[in-house]
Amino acid sequence: MTDNRLDTDAELVARLADTLDEAALAHRTVARPTDSTDLDLTTAYRVQRAVIDRRLARGEALIGVKMGFTSRAKMIQMGVDDVIWGLLTDAMLVEEGGVLDPGGLIHPRIEPEIAFLIGSPLSGTITPAEAVRAVAGVAVAYEVLDSRYADFDFTLPDVIADNASAAGFGFGTWHDPAGLDLSNLGLLVEIDGRVVASGSSAAILGNPLRSLIAAARLAAEAGLELRPGWVVLAGAATAAMPLPKGVHVRVSAAGLGRAEVTTR
Ligand code: OOG
Ligand code: MG
To answer: Is the pLDDT of residue 5 over 60?
Structure first.
């Protein structure tokens, strides 16, 4: 019985991972897993990991994690109410000032983030002081989202399985976190010079450092550690904006400068 059950679970995880991976490669939406299965959060994270394993098998490397729904603005926009995470690979990284081709995406959105550069390994329950000590740099960043579900319409297990809608990200210059108060930095998103979203880093769990602490906890639960050189995206401070073709996007944060990307 138990063995059969494990086999069935493993098959389900592999099948869902294949479907989501192929959808991302083909820039096509797929049905939500919860429309046809009782996907619990643990199994959803196993699907996420299996999706990433398929990318790693194609030569991509794990370079960090992204936190999701760490702000009320995002929870309300997406209709969910729990903090989640996704995994970032080097293929998702857009070089600073670089060009992104949205043609490879289904319905991209962009959102402002605070990024941490990990300086020493982090995993498990940590204090704010330990979190600060482990950070080698902090930067303003943006995340490009692309749900593999129509209209970004999903439940929590669906979006976890879909690697938290991760598609791309970029960041500006790293700053020394020592002496920087991250608790209330103004954040702006401009598209072709027009402000399309504004917010504060306070929206991210009151202080983005709390998101890093949550990332360390989730890492331990996943049997991972946040490694030196990894990037942690703390989560968007505002709702995400549609990302059109042929525009210039600038995300800026008081004291952290800016991160910029142009779409083809
Ligand atoms: C899920 C990803 C959420 C954030 O910063 O809150 C996220 C989505 O909105 O599709 O990345
Ligand atoms: Mg995000």
So the answer is: yes
Q: Which two tokens stand for residue 176?
A: 């020394």
Q: Is the CB of 164 under 6 A from ligand 1?
A: yes
Q: Whose CA is nearest to atom 10 of ligand 1?
A: 165
Could you tell me which residues are beta bridge partners of residue 143? 111, 169
Q: What separation in Å is there between the alpha carbon of 68 and the centre of ligand 1? A: 5
Query: In whole angstroms, what is the distance from residue 134 CA to residue 129 CA?
Result: 9
- State which of 165, 187, 218 you would mutate to test the pocket of ligand 1, scoring each by most atoms of that ligand within 8 A of its C-beta: 165
- The radius of gyration of the chain from alpha carbons, rounded to an integer in Å, stands at 18
Closest-CA residue, ligand 1 atom 8, reads 165
The tens digit of pLDDT for each residue in 175-221 reads: 999 889 999 999 999 999 999 999 999 999 999 999 999 999 999 99
Kindly report, residue by residue over 80-102, the tens digit of the pLDDT: 989 999 999 999 999 999 999 99
Q: Average pLDDT of 55-83?
A: 96
- Pull the structure tokens for residue 97: 């000032």
- Could you give the residue ranges of the DSSP H alpha helices within 58-123? 72-78
Q: What are residue 175's DSSP bridge partners? A: 138
Q: ∠ CA 223-229-235 to the nearest 5 degrees?
A: 70
72-81 residue pLDDT tens: 999 999 999 8
Amino acid at 119: G
Structure tokens at 145: 């989202």
* Mean pLDDT of the chain, nearest integer: 96
Ligand 2 centre and the CA of 143: distance in Å?
A: 5
DSSP string for 194-225: EEEEEEEGGGTTTSHHHHHHHHHHHHHHTT--
